[in-house]
Specification:
Blueprint lengths: L8 H12 L11 H5 L3 E2 L12 H13 L18 H14 L3 E5 L2 H11 L6 E5 L4 H9 L3 E5 L4 H16 L8 E6 L11 H11 L2 E5 L11 H4 L8 E5 L9 E5 L1 H10 L1 H4 L6 H17 L6 H18 L13 E5 L3 H13 L2 E2 L1 E3 L10 E5 L6 H20 L1
Helix pairs in contact: 3-12, 4-12, 5-6, 7-8, 13-15, 14-15
């Protein structure tokens, strides 16, 4: 028998509340769906199938051989012994691809956002952020000494009203030294929708703010991201890209000027006080970028196939009269709002039993009443798979309506 220390009562009470609301999170197995050959992937962030791409896998090994790197770990933080030579090669290539001055690799998107927002905005500065911004940005903001205010989701009028209030504060005698940081995502992970980045860049210029865009779910789906696609690199203060989604590997980077890179190296605690990524991880990042660059020149690339898949999914949603449930999205994330943890979990289970892995997103991850099924689309999803899963969804929804 194992001896263990009991969980404090107030912590157990919080778990009990989650369980009573049918919202208790549990860890599942990672690859059991594909290995079983029974379930179709509509849940992973592997939008382009790069996580299993053999070309990328073997190219990463070639890069390690070319650099004579036969090491399993980084051996220390990047500021001590862990800044192996692949970091420089990968960061230079990433900056070149995104047409920015510099890039700085972090161990994860969470580390990058926490490191950036906990160190860059200073006491007296102001952060304006979209109300649906990712948890990693929120956590970074909470660790900063800046004032933070949310604006309504993708609402330019609300954003401008708050920017105007900041301008009035300056005019009324507040220190003119404070900076304003305006933060959004190019594709929101829980809705799959996008803001008007061009209009936000215009507002940023008008009000003299520092514009920051998280491109986690846009990189690879929209080529090198929506900022690059719209040619806004010179109008954005900092861009976050992550590699654990469409690029199929691990890590993240902050893109921007040489000055912001130098600042983060000196003050971002999530970079300074952690062991660096091992050489193989950085080699895989570089191999994934090389593959994406090569694919961008091909007439039938994974990105083109993904776009066709997204368009087909939206057409089927329309043909089956399911638009009322789905949030409008041009991205690989398509969400059907089905209120209630119990209801959405039951439908998700029905789809899973039929062979389709579609995850239910529950409150409190999102607001109560906004529970949903999140369909993550991939370049390898077939039209028959889409037709079948949406037919099953339609029947399930009719069944619950009848109940």
């Amino acid at each position: 028998m194992y001896l263990y220390v009991m969980l404090p009562k107030k912590l157990q009470a919080k778990l009990d509340l989650r369980s009573a609301a049918n919202a208790l999170r549990k860890l599942g197995s990672s690859h059991h769906l594909e290995e079983s050959g029974e379930n179709v992937d509509f849940s992973s962030n592997d939008y382009l199938g790069y996580s299993k791409n053999q070309t990328i896998f073997f190219r990463a090994s070639e890069i390690l051989e070319e650099q004579n790197l036969q090491e399993n770990g980084a051996t220390g933080s990047r500021l001590l012994s862990g800044n192996h030579k692949l970091y420089r090669q990968a960061e230079d290539f990433i900056a070149q691809i995104h047409q920015v001055e510099a890039s700085l690799i972090f161990n994860s998107g969470y580390d990058a956002n926490v490191g950036f927002f906990s160190s860059v905005p200073q006491r007296g500065d102001v952060i304006l952020y979209d109300e649906f911004i990712h948890a990693s940005i929120r956590d970074g903001i909470q660790m900063s000494n800046a004032k933070a205010y949310k604006f309504k989701h993708n609402d330019l009028e609300d954003l401008e009203s708050k920017l105007s209030l900041r301008a009035q504060s300056r005019s009324a005698g507040e220190s003119a030294e404070f900076e304003i940081y305006m933060v959004t995502e190019s594709v929101f992970s829980m809705d799959g929708d996008s803001p008007n980045l061009q209009a936000m860049a215009d507002l940023s210029k008008k009000h003299g703010t520092n514009f920051i865009v998280d491109e986690a779910h846009a990189l690879g789906v929209f080529n090198y991201g929506l900022v690059h696609q719209l040619g806004l690199q010179d109008r954005v203060f900092a861009i976050l890209v992550t590699f654990g989604k469409a690029l199929g590997c691990h890590g993240a980077a902050i893109l921007g000027s040489n000055q912001i890179k130098s600042y983060l190296v000196n003050f971002a605690r999530s970079l300074i006080y952690t062991t660096g990524l091992p050489p193989h991880s950085v080699a895989t990042i570089l191999a994934s970028y090389e593959h994406m660059e090569h694919e961008a020149k091909m007439p039938q690339s994974d990105i083109i196939r993904l776009d066709a898949t997204i368009q087909f999914f939206r057409e089927v949603v329309k043909n089956k009269n399911l638009q009322a449930y789905f949030i409008s999205s041009d991205s690989a994330i398509q969400c059907a709002i089905i209120p209630g943890n119990d209801t959405v979990k039951r439908i998700s289970l029905q789809l899973k039993k039929a062979g389709f892995d579609v995850k239910a997103i529950l409150s409190p991850t999102i607001s109560a009443g906004q529970e949903r099924l999140r369909f993550c689309l991939h370049s390898y999803n077939s039209q028959n798979e889409i037709l079948n899963v949406l037919e099953l969804l339609s029947k399930s929804l009719k069944g619950f309506s009848a109940d």
